[in-house]
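Need C-alpha coordinates for this chain, all 268 residues.
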Amino acid sequence: MKKSLICLAGLIMLFISACDENVKSGSILAEVDNERLDRETFIAGYGIDAWNSLRPEERKKYVEDWVNITLLAQAADKAGLSHDPIIRQRMEFAQKKVKANAMIAERLAKVKISEDQLFSYFRIHQAEFQKPVISYQIQRINLPDKLTAENVLQQIYQGLDFTQAVRRYSTEELRRQDGFMGFVEPASQDSVFWQGVQNLKPLEPGVITHDGDWYIVRYTESQEEVKEANFEDHKDEIRRRILRDKQEEIYRNILLEIKSENHNIYYY
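Here are the C-alpha coordinates for all 268 residues:
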Protein backbone atom coordinates (compact mmCIF):
# COMPACT_ATOMS: atom_id res chain seq x y z
CA MET A 1 0.00 0.00 0.00
CA LYS A 2 2.78 2.42 0.94
CA LYS A 3 4.79 1.65 -2.18
CA SER A 4 1.78 2.00 -4.47
CA LEU A 5 0.89 5.29 -2.78
CA ILE A 6 4.32 6.73 -3.53
CA CYS A 7 4.58 5.41 -7.10
CA LEU A 8 1.04 6.22 -8.23
CA ALA A 9 1.00 9.59 -6.56
CA GLY A 10 4.29 10.40 -8.21
CA LEU A 11 2.91 9.75 -11.67
CA ILE A 12 -0.23 11.75 -10.94
CA MET A 13 1.84 14.61 -9.58
CA LEU A 14 3.90 14.66 -12.76
CA PHE A 15 0.74 14.49 -14.85
CA ILE A 16 -0.73 17.54 -13.13
CA SER A 17 2.48 19.55 -12.73
CA ALA A 18 3.59 18.98 -16.31
CA CYS A 19 0.80 21.24 -17.59
CA ASP A 20 2.69 24.33 -16.35
CA GLU A 21 3.39 26.64 -19.26
CA ASN A 22 6.49 28.16 -17.64
CA VAL A 23 8.84 25.33 -18.60
CA LYS A 24 12.37 25.71 -19.87
CA SER A 25 12.43 24.40 -23.43
CA GLY A 26 15.68 22.50 -22.97
CA SER A 27 14.29 20.48 -20.06
CA ILE A 28 11.20 19.07 -21.76
CA LEU A 29 11.16 15.26 -21.74
CA ALA A 30 7.87 14.67 -23.57
CA GLU A 31 4.84 16.51 -24.97
CA VAL A 32 1.32 15.34 -25.76
CA ASP A 33 -1.10 17.86 -27.32
CA ASN A 34 0.56 20.83 -25.62
CA GLU A 35 0.85 19.07 -22.25
CA ARG A 36 4.51 18.87 -21.30
CA LEU A 37 6.62 16.80 -18.93
CA ASP A 38 9.84 18.50 -17.85
CA ARG A 39 12.90 17.32 -15.96
CA GLU A 40 12.57 20.01 -13.29
CA THR A 41 9.16 18.65 -12.25
CA PHE A 42 10.68 15.28 -11.49
CA ILE A 43 13.62 16.79 -9.60
CA ALA A 44 11.32 19.10 -7.61
CA GLY A 45 9.22 16.13 -6.60
CA TYR A 46 11.87 13.52 -5.92
CA GLY A 47 15.21 15.27 -5.60
CA ILE A 48 18.31 15.45 -7.75
CA ASP A 49 19.78 12.27 -6.20
CA ALA A 50 16.73 10.27 -7.30
CA TRP A 51 17.04 11.66 -10.84
CA ASN A 52 20.77 10.95 -11.07
CA SER A 53 20.33 7.41 -9.76
CA LEU A 54 17.93 6.40 -12.54
CA ARG A 55 19.42 4.37 -15.35
CA PRO A 56 18.69 5.61 -18.92
CA GLU A 57 16.21 2.79 -19.50
CA GLU A 58 14.41 3.66 -16.24
CA ARG A 59 14.10 7.30 -17.25
CA LYS A 60 12.79 6.22 -20.63
CA LYS A 61 10.16 4.02 -18.99
CA TYR A 62 9.12 6.81 -16.61
CA VAL A 63 8.60 9.20 -19.52
CA GLU A 64 6.70 6.53 -21.47
CA ASP A 65 4.42 5.93 -18.47
CA TRP A 66 3.64 9.66 -18.32
CA VAL A 67 2.86 9.75 -22.06
CA ASN A 68 0.53 6.76 -21.75
CA ILE A 69 -1.31 8.21 -18.74
CA THR A 70 -1.66 11.57 -20.49
CA LEU A 71 -3.12 9.97 -23.62
CA LEU A 72 -5.61 7.97 -21.57
CA ALA A 73 -6.60 11.01 -19.49
CA GLN A 74 -7.15 13.13 -22.58
CA ALA A 75 -9.28 10.40 -24.13
CA ALA A 76 -11.32 10.18 -20.91
CA ASP A 77 -11.98 13.93 -21.02
CA LYS A 78 -13.14 13.72 -24.63
CA ALA A 79 -15.48 10.89 -23.68
CA GLY A 80 -17.00 12.98 -20.89
CA LEU A 81 -15.93 10.58 -18.15
CA SER A 82 -14.64 13.41 -15.98
CA HIS A 83 -18.23 14.38 -15.20
CA ASP A 84 -19.15 10.96 -13.82
CA PRO A 85 -19.69 11.22 -10.00
CA ILE A 86 -17.64 8.09 -9.27
CA ILE A 87 -14.80 9.31 -11.46
CA ARG A 88 -14.88 12.69 -9.73
CA GLN A 89 -14.57 10.98 -6.34
CA ARG A 90 -11.59 9.04 -7.60
CA MET A 91 -10.03 12.24 -8.91
CA GLU A 92 -10.46 13.89 -5.52
CA PHE A 93 -8.80 10.90 -3.87
CA ALA A 94 -5.97 11.13 -6.42
CA GLN A 95 -5.44 14.78 -5.43
CA LYS A 96 -5.01 13.66 -1.84
CA LYS A 97 -2.35 11.24 -3.01
CA VAL A 98 -0.57 14.06 -4.82
CA LYS A 99 -0.53 16.15 -1.66
CA ALA A 100 0.68 13.22 0.42
CA ASN A 101 3.42 12.55 -2.12
CA ALA A 102 4.42 16.22 -2.01
CA MET A 103 5.00 15.91 1.74
CA ILE A 104 7.22 12.89 1.23
CA ALA A 105 9.03 14.46 -1.73
CA GLU A 106 9.79 17.65 0.18
CA ARG A 107 11.69 15.75 2.84
CA LEU A 108 13.25 13.29 0.42
CA ALA A 109 14.70 16.19 -1.59
CA LYS A 110 16.69 17.19 1.50
CA VAL A 111 18.30 13.77 1.82
CA LYS A 112 21.96 13.78 0.82
CA ILE A 113 23.75 10.48 0.35
CA SER A 114 27.49 10.68 0.89
CA GLU A 115 30.20 8.43 -0.52
CA ASP A 116 30.79 7.09 2.99
CA GLN A 117 27.13 6.09 3.29
CA LEU A 118 27.29 4.29 -0.04
CA PHE A 119 30.42 2.41 0.95
CA SER A 120 29.09 1.54 4.41
CA TYR A 121 25.98 0.04 2.81
CA PHE A 122 28.18 -1.89 0.39
CA ARG A 123 30.29 -3.36 3.18
CA ILE A 124 27.22 -4.48 5.14
CA HIS A 125 25.43 -5.96 2.10
CA GLN A 126 28.46 -7.02 0.09
CA ALA A 127 27.36 -10.63 -0.13
CA GLU A 128 24.19 -9.56 -1.96
CA PHE A 129 26.27 -8.15 -4.81
CA GLN A 130 28.48 -11.21 -5.22
CA LYS A 131 27.43 -13.48 -8.04
CA PRO A 132 28.92 -16.75 -9.27
CA VAL A 133 31.07 -16.36 -12.38
CA ILE A 134 31.37 -19.22 -14.88
CA SER A 135 34.58 -19.49 -16.85
CA TYR A 136 35.28 -21.89 -19.72
CA GLN A 137 38.42 -23.72 -20.79
CA ILE A 138 38.24 -22.78 -24.47
CA GLN A 139 39.95 -24.45 -27.40
CA ARG A 140 39.92 -22.73 -30.79
CA ILE A 141 40.97 -23.08 -34.40
CA ASN A 142 41.94 -19.86 -36.19
CA LEU A 143 40.90 -19.84 -39.87
CA PRO A 144 41.19 -17.22 -42.64
CA ASP A 145 37.60 -17.08 -43.89
CA LYS A 146 34.05 -18.29 -43.41
CA LEU A 147 34.21 -20.89 -46.19
CA THR A 148 37.27 -22.56 -44.66
CA ALA A 149 35.70 -22.48 -41.21
CA GLU A 150 32.53 -24.17 -42.46
CA ASN A 151 34.59 -26.77 -44.29
CA VAL A 152 36.68 -27.66 -41.23
CA LEU A 153 33.59 -27.67 -39.03
CA GLN A 154 31.97 -30.17 -41.37
CA GLN A 155 35.05 -32.42 -41.11
CA ILE A 156 34.82 -32.28 -37.31
CA TYR A 157 31.14 -33.29 -37.48
CA GLN A 158 32.20 -36.20 -39.69
CA GLY A 159 34.69 -37.47 -37.11
CA LEU A 160 37.89 -35.41 -37.37
CA ASP A 161 39.37 -35.00 -33.87
CA PHE A 162 39.21 -31.33 -32.77
CA THR A 163 42.82 -31.26 -31.56
CA GLN A 164 43.99 -32.81 -34.84
CA ALA A 165 42.03 -30.13 -36.69
CA VAL A 166 43.84 -27.45 -34.64
CA ARG A 167 47.23 -28.86 -35.58
CA ARG A 168 46.29 -29.26 -39.22
CA TYR A 169 44.39 -26.06 -40.01
CA SER A 170 44.89 -23.35 -37.35
CA THR A 171 46.87 -20.35 -38.64
CA GLU A 172 47.98 -18.86 -35.29
CA GLU A 173 50.77 -19.59 -32.83
CA LEU A 174 48.25 -20.85 -30.29
CA ARG A 175 48.13 -24.09 -32.26
CA ARG A 176 51.39 -25.02 -30.48
CA GLN A 177 49.27 -25.29 -27.33
CA ASP A 178 46.64 -27.24 -29.30
CA GLY A 179 44.52 -24.08 -29.45
CA PHE A 180 43.84 -23.91 -25.71
CA MET A 181 43.23 -20.38 -24.44
CA GLY A 182 42.97 -21.33 -20.78
CA PHE A 183 39.93 -20.51 -18.66
CA VAL A 184 38.14 -17.45 -20.05
CA GLU A 185 35.86 -15.22 -17.95
CA PRO A 186 32.93 -13.10 -19.21
CA ALA A 187 34.59 -9.81 -18.24
CA SER A 188 38.01 -10.61 -19.73
CA GLN A 189 39.48 -9.16 -22.94
CA ASP A 190 38.61 -12.46 -24.62
CA SER A 191 34.93 -12.18 -23.66
CA VAL A 192 33.83 -12.61 -27.31
CA PHE A 193 35.06 -16.22 -27.10
CA TRP A 194 33.27 -16.72 -23.78
CA GLN A 195 30.07 -15.51 -25.43
CA GLY A 196 30.75 -17.82 -28.38
CA VAL A 197 30.71 -20.96 -26.24
CA GLN A 198 28.25 -20.13 -23.46
CA ASN A 199 25.30 -21.63 -25.36
CA LEU A 200 27.21 -24.71 -26.50
CA LYS A 201 27.33 -28.07 -24.79
CA PRO A 202 30.70 -29.37 -23.53
CA LEU A 203 32.92 -30.36 -26.50
CA GLU A 204 30.30 -29.11 -28.98
CA PRO A 205 31.98 -27.04 -31.75
CA GLY A 206 30.70 -23.68 -32.96
CA VAL A 207 31.84 -20.90 -35.30
CA ILE A 208 32.45 -17.22 -34.45
CA THR A 209 34.13 -14.29 -36.16
CA HIS A 210 36.37 -11.76 -34.40
CA ASP A 211 38.51 -8.92 -35.77
CA GLY A 212 38.17 -10.23 -39.32
CA ASP A 213 39.23 -13.79 -38.46
CA TRP A 214 37.08 -16.89 -38.19
CA TYR A 215 37.28 -19.41 -35.38
CA ILE A 216 35.90 -22.80 -34.59
CA VAL A 217 35.55 -22.92 -30.81
CA ARG A 218 34.49 -25.29 -28.08
CA TYR A 219 34.95 -25.61 -24.35
CA THR A 220 36.30 -28.69 -22.66
CA GLU A 221 35.72 -27.70 -19.03
CA SER A 222 33.84 -25.10 -17.03
CA GLN A 223 34.29 -23.84 -13.50
CA GLU A 224 32.22 -21.61 -11.25
CA GLU A 225 33.53 -19.31 -8.55
CA VAL A 226 32.27 -16.36 -6.59
CA LYS A 227 34.17 -13.18 -7.40
CA GLU A 228 34.67 -10.35 -4.92
CA ALA A 229 32.08 -7.65 -5.65
CA ASN A 230 33.46 -4.30 -6.82
CA PHE A 231 32.07 -1.21 -5.05
CA GLU A 232 32.31 1.04 -8.12
CA ASP A 233 30.24 -1.41 -10.19
CA HIS A 234 27.30 -1.22 -7.76
CA LYS A 235 27.21 2.42 -6.60
CA ASP A 236 24.10 3.32 -8.62
CA GLU A 237 22.20 0.29 -7.35
CA ILE A 238 23.21 1.09 -3.75
CA ARG A 239 22.04 4.69 -4.14
CA ARG A 240 18.65 3.48 -5.42
CA ARG A 241 18.31 1.10 -2.49
CA ILE A 242 19.12 3.78 0.08
CA LEU A 243 16.66 6.23 -1.49
CA ARG A 244 13.96 3.55 -1.52
CA ASP A 245 14.57 2.86 2.17
CA LYS A 246 14.54 6.58 2.93
CA GLN A 247 11.17 6.95 1.21
CA GLU A 248 9.66 4.30 3.45
CA GLU A 249 11.26 5.82 6.54
CA ILE A 250 10.02 9.32 5.70
CA TYR A 251 6.51 7.96 5.01
CA ARG A 252 6.34 6.31 8.43
CA ASN A 253 7.79 9.30 10.30
CA ILE A 254 5.41 11.79 8.73
CA LEU A 255 2.40 9.67 9.65
CA LEU A 256 3.64 9.26 13.23
CA GLU A 257 4.13 13.02 13.58
CA ILE A 258 0.70 13.89 12.17
CA LYS A 259 -1.18 11.22 14.11
CA SER A 260 0.46 12.28 17.37
CA GLU A 261 -0.93 15.80 16.87
CA ASN A 262 -4.34 14.88 15.43
CA HIS A 263 -6.78 13.10 17.76
CA ASN A 264 -9.83 13.51 15.51
CA ILE A 265 -9.39 10.16 13.83
CA TYR A 266 -12.28 7.71 13.93
CA TYR A 267 -12.78 4.28 12.36
CA TYR A 268 -16.31 2.96 11.77
